[in-house]
Sequence to fold (290 residues):
Amino acid sequence: MHEVKVKGILSAKNGMNLYRGCSHGCIYCDSRSRCYQINHDFEDIEVKSNGLELLEDALQRKRNKCMIGTGSMSDPYIPLEKELQYTRGALELIRRYRFGATLITKSDMVLRDLDLLQEIHRQTRAVVQMTLTTWDDAICKIVEPGVCSTSRRFQVLKELQNARIPTVVWLTPILPHINDTRANLQALLECCVDAGVSGVLWFGAGVTLREGNREYFYQQLDHHFPGMKEQYMREFGSSYVAASRNDRQLSAMVRSTCGRYGILCEPDQVFADLQRFEEKEGGEQLSFLP
Fold:
């Protein structure tokens, strides 16, 4: 890891990343793309040492309360978080100033902060977004080697359900010739239904490949799935999107299942709901005490 001081922490849409880079090792990670200008080894985590100070200043200055998001570029619960607790510090500030929180993760470490998420949700809203790609834990260990298994993430979703924390699942990416099967998607959708998720983010069956992440992805395909790289190159070349031939039927399955169980699945609707802020009557009063 290395530390940097930054000039700002919140984006125009109230998102933040307290870390840059990631140690989860997901073979498909879009954050490796050169367009994001991460000018250091991806696994050498950049820590924004003044991030919490900037966040508190930003929350104090904001005229309107809103949802604060994190996890779009780096999982907020990378192993380094156990030591630094920047994500927990951010949630404490969000609770103190009565904002809402939503975060994206693949880690069961989110349960460490369940107490804060519940406090935030009593006051406003807290939503946990969890990524699921394959129900097969053996494949999961290959494509997402540094995070907990899908079966463990399902347990996390159930614990969040029991704690009355709303959840959204990202069903992405669905990798052609690896996890783009009806059986895999059916198992993941059953998980979503059982865990009572409020939304499913589905962008079709496939994976995006940009300069930077394409090279890493192909390298990992060569290592774990001999011959798969050549198959991808024949089918997709240098295309930005490597779309599965099963996209139509899998997308129909997602829409049908979500419609049957009242789960939001249109991306615009899910993102709009994630940004929806509400302040609840009778919630904990604002306190500036530590």
